[in-house]
Amino acid sequence: MKAITYSAYGTADALELVDVPEPKVGPGEVLVRVKAAGVNPVDWKLAAGYLDPILEVRYPVIPGWDVAGVVEAVGADTFDYAVGDEVYGYVRKEWVELGTYAELVSAPVRTLARKPRSLTFEQAAGIPLAGLTAYQSLTRVGLKAGETVLIHSAAGGTGSLGVQIAVALGLRVIGTAGAHNHDYLRSLGAEPVLYGEGLADRVRELAPEGIDAGLDFYGDGVVETLQSLVKERARVVSIADYEAAAKGAHQLWVRPDTTDLTFLAKLAEEGALTVNVEHALPLAEAAKAWELSASGRTRGKIVLTV
Fold it and tell me: Are 130 and 90 a contacting pair, CB within 8 Å?
């Protein structure tokens, strides 16, 4: 099969489209014919070696954790899905090696759920990692309907899904973004606020009584700002500040979860969750996809079509 691989830590230039053996399918796994693979910043950060202290890597690596596709075969004692089922998932395994930038991927059923019928494969591939990250961040701090949450970097891939999920859960959402993305955030149901110097004062103007929780989806030292705005300092989550826990906030690393993926699929079926796919590129252009992701200027998601 065709797959994108790299054989050492490096940049997008190291990516190659090559022929590799088809993956084996073990018990509790299915073989998925990949229709689309989501691109996330963690993909190129991992390839650059930033996560070497915590993740086992075995070369050559096929990158990618997000997938949407069709079940082609099932492993021994696997009854969760049948051949022909449309699925999507966050296929994170015990170590980094056999990812989703490929024509086929073997996926443990614990990483999958049934694909939302209302979404294209490209849209569905943009949900798993970012959608799970957003949803698990919201649930980590126990947000309830009627509360107010501030989402930092609300127009990005994770943020735009987080806004929609929070709105569907009955939350008031304030989202940071550049001025050019403010109308976009309003269309998702958020109250936009400009990020950067003076952010805390601008948020206090919108919520003089304070906010109930803050979600940091970008970094840039905003955790302390969020802690100064929330009513309880512990109700801050960051996916980008690796010192968040030491600062008294939650440092979240998203987990594969079939139940959570099923919930997100339900929101999509109800029309409460959609995906803005800004770039859909062929598998062979994975390097270009990484460059677009690293630019930090993408609104919504980048996916590879297979």
Answer: no
Q: Which helix (H) or strand (E) holds 277?
A: strand 277-282
For residues 28-53, average pLDDT:
97
Name residues whose C-beta falls within 8 Å of residue 297's C-beta, 6 or more positions apart in sequence: none
Contact residues for 187 (Cβ-Cβ < 8 A; gap 6+): none
Which residue from 224, 191, 234, 230 is spatially nearest to 212, judged by alpha carbons? Answer: 230
Q: Which two tokens stand for residue 196?
A: 């950067």
- pTM value > 0.85: yes
Residues with Cβ < 8 Å from 65, sequence gap 6 or more? 38, 40, 42, 43, 90, 91, 92, 99, 100, 128, 129
**Cα atoms in the Cβ-side hemisphere of radius 13 Å centred on 23:** 28
Report yes or no: 279 and 298 within 8 Å, Cβ to Cβ.
yes
In sequence order, the β-bridge partners of residue 68 are 36, 88
Q: How far apart are CA 65 and CA 219, in angstroms?
A: 22
Q: Residue 271's CB: how many other CB atoms inside 10 A?
A: 9
Torsion angle of C-alpha atoms 197, 175, 203, 147, degrees rounded to 10 = -150
Greatest Cα pair distance in the chain:
59
Tell me the per-residue pLDDT of 228-281, one tens digit each, with 9 for 90 and over: 999 999 999 999 998 999 999 999 999 999 999 999 999 999 999 999 999 999
